[in-house]
Model the fold of this input.
Amino acid sequence: MLLAVLSGFLLALVAPALHRVTGRYIGWTLAILPASLTAYFASLIPAVQASGSLVIEYAWMPGLGINLNFLVDGLSLVFALLISGIGTFILIYAGAYLAGHQYLARFFVIMLSFMASMLGLVLSDNLVSLFVFWELTSITSYMLIGFNHEDMEARKCALQGLFVTAGGGLVLMAGLILLAIMGGSYSLAEILSSDLALQDHAFYTGAVICILAGCFTKSAQVPFHFWLPNAMAAPTPVSAFLHSATMVKAGIYLMARLNPSLGEGALWSQALMVFGAATMFTGAYLAFSSTGIKKVLAYSTIMALGTLTMLIGVGTELALTAFVCFLVAHSLYKGALFMIAGALDHETGTKDISRMGGLRKTMPVTAAIACLAALSLAGLPPVFGFIAKELLLESLLDAPFWSIGLTTAAVAAAVLIVGVAGLVAIKPFFGKVANTPKAPHEAPFGMLIGPAVLSVIALIFGLAPFLPEGALLQSAVGSVFGTPVETYLALWHGVNVPLVLSIGSLVLGLSLLSGWHRLQPALYAINTYAARFGPEAGYFHFMEGITIVAAWQTRILQNGVLGLYLLLLVAVTFGLTGYTLLTHHGIHLTLDLTDSHFYEWGIALLLVAAATFASSTHSRLGSVASMGVLGFGVALTFILFSAPDLGITQLLVETLTVILLVLVLFRLPEFVNLSSPFERFRDLAVAIFAGVVMTLLILAALDVQYFESISSYYIENSGTLGHGRNIVNVILVDFRALDTLGEIFVLSLAALGVLSMIKLRAEDQYKS
Amino acid sequence: MKSNTLILHTAALFIMPLQLMFSVFLLFRGHDEPGGGFIGGLVAASAFVLYAFAFGSEPTRRILRVAPRDLLAAGLLFAIASTVPAFLAGQPMLTAHWWEVPLPGGNYLKLSTPLIFDIGVYAAVLGTIMTFVINLMESDE
Done:
């Protein structure tokens, strides 16, 4: 299982080398991995059917409660199968779509990393590792949206997507921590199986708001939906995979995953229903009013995401059955339609639907596949989308409250979506032949196999719904509901209310479609007007606001006067420390000087003299040198009190610091006294204050021992456990190696910071 | 920046190899005696700094062979790599692993993940300081 999740990252490492070997068959070669993963996940189905869920454990940082545990149940397996299954075809498709692209290898590196992160996300049992994978999907998505990085627009859209999803991710982290505190564990399996009534916990409201903020941003719910259409700046294989079938469903996944624990509260279900329904309707409307084929599909994805959110909110057994069916159906048809859209774009040279027409003669296979996928989108028999839509309407009619409102919204959305299905399947392929920028011809095999297989699967699932139901869907519904359920899926339910509503929406949708050309200018005008007040405008205002605040606080706090930085740092740190010291400990001066030696006094005097000289001299070189003396004095102290490692380190660091300072010194202007006497006295006061607090702190540390000292443990065990006699080193590289690891990362970051500062300054000078 | 004194040139050529050898010595004995990756890295850095003072930054880059920031990255990679054996064995991150390789003559060579980790620290420290020094010197020229 560990290998299954991480194999994507491993393959990503060698993808560029593979590309050199396999050349144009790179897509097919790489697709072997997700294909075998699909087979592996499918082989887990019997085990999940038998036991409900499996937890597979790998210890990672058990001390912090962070383990790499995997939870496999119906829900995560459905997601894992969708990711690896659709991923297989996306990789093949991308190999054809981007054939000959100069950064093809780079594309596959990011794409495979994304796939692995996504698998990690849906299979993680630990909330922390789930969050790590969650953020990884945001970052890889950022790189994929901005894949055409020479295009300014693509970079802007990528950044927008990153800001929205990563901002939500931060809030989500707070929510997950609250959840872990409430549930008493970081393990999803334990939280889900505990019988705590989380909705009565004091943190419940906070946790739900934070978690939903994370899920809503990721899954493009109103009012955060605007980033998704902009993410269409990505190459089409990316849109097909990330922004329809997988990544945007991460939020949906998390909501479904937590539904058994959090779903009891009214806040949860009401928020999901309101935001879900609003998103569903907004998405359907915007989809119908767009002209770019990818935008149309993106907005219809928003509609689907809204529908899924709403269904979790309704939360009845029937609604969750509809949720799982709709999820599978949507992933199948949306992945297919995006790939078709890419093929159209690739072969005709335009993304604008109004410029396409009559393509069925030149692209017959594409047309057939598009029609089959669009049937599923519109929710027509005999494909799986029909079953999902019937279930959706039925469950809304049955909803415990707000049934009429939700049903109306769903039917309105359905009408628009029928229109949208027509837009993508009828408009480009039928009617008058339109002049396209490129002479169209059939798309290559690699670009057709994916959508063809996905559409045919949707057809098979529609004709024989008991196949997926028995295998997996039933246990998936069970994991969202919290207890095992019995479902019954069938294509034909007889004439009932949902069917009547479906037929009605079909008729209305088709008539809307026929008037599309006439409606288009009016819709365009409305949308342009609405955009000025819409959430995207809010996003831009927000970003401007951040810039203004940042500029303001930089002027106040970071105005380039280094003395001020130091003053603030020292004053705040020692002010707070001094306060804590006074209130918690008080001042006890017990200074015993009886067993001090004369050479210790000598070093102390040397230190004081060096410090005084360094702060009063007018010569920079003298100041640096006396700082060096100070440092060597400290090193001497270390050596006197038998800490040779510290002493050596201090000596070396001092030497190198003096050298570095001398290097910088040459670049400073002549020494001038810029500060007023008042400022100098203020600085002196702060410095003395810091010195006094530090002295008191050290005396206090000698005075009291709040905990039993750990040094005896190190002394006893460094030889036996650490195989070393130098305790300092054993602590550094073994006992507390994690600290050291953190430290060398900080060190490296500092080096990179200095490097970029020097380089940027050099470039500035070069320009001016 | 480059000095033209014959004494410094000659001294640097003699002292630098000694310093480098000493730094490696410090690195390897660090587990039992005073020393270790951090101190070793600092000594190695002072060796190259001496060289840079004598001959300038460009020859120092040449004698380093790799860019200082690649050295940094290599250090971090080594440190991370030392976590892999524990990970593969399903143990907590950074659990130490020890191997004793028998040498001819009845001695043993002690190899361990803490040693790999320490090599990482050595390279990271060396890389950091050389990044500072070389770039500061070059921004002058």
Q: What stands out?
A: The CA atoms of residues 290 and 643 of chain A lie 72 Å apart. Chain A is about 75% helix and 0% strand.
